[in-house]
Design goal:
The chain contains two helices and five strands. It is an alpha+beta fold. Strands 3-2-1-4-5 form a five-stranded antiparallel beta sheet, with no helix packed on it. The N and C termini lie far apart (71 Å).
């Protein structure tokens, strides 16, 4: 009888400990999730999550509009309000081949260096579904 009480007590303690351990693990996951600044879907290709978080802390912003001038690493973009903004690129800038007149979106730091540039007129259709199964009928 004493042995069965010891076994029940030990198994009850084990279940309690296991539940507490699981609860602590889940709270660590929740804290890690709420601590991240952007969802993985918002991270541009070619950047890892750490770089995106560092970029956010540096005062980055997005510029969108028509490319009205391109001279080497110097670009001028006219936004939707007609305001002209200049930006610079370097070897670290992730960008497609863009031409004057293209509509672009650029992610720039506080010094107006572009971290990445995307052409809104792109003919790249990799993100679109080409499968017949996606659009039946």
């Amino acid at each position: 009888m004493m042995t069965s009480q010891i076994v029940r007590g030990a198994s009850g303690s084990s279940v309690l400990f296991l539940g507490l351990f699981t609860l602590l693990q889940m709270s660590a996951v929740v804290l890690a999730e709420t601590g991240s600044k952007r969802s993985p879907c918002e991270i541009p290709p070619g950047q890892n999550a750490l770089r995106v978080e560092q970029d956010q802390d540096r005062g980055t912003r997005t510029i969108s509009g028509e490319l009205i001038s391109a001279d080497g690493d110097y670009y001028v973009v006219k936004d939707e309000n007609g305001k002209e903004e200049s930006l610079l690129t370097d070897k670290r800038t992730d960008k497609p081949i863009i031409e004057k007149g293209n509509r672009i979106t650029a992610y720039v730091d506080e010094d107006n260096y572009a971290l990445w540039i995307r052409s809104d007129d792109s003919t790249d259709r990799r993100s679109e579904h080409g499968s017949v199964d996606c659009n039946p009928g």
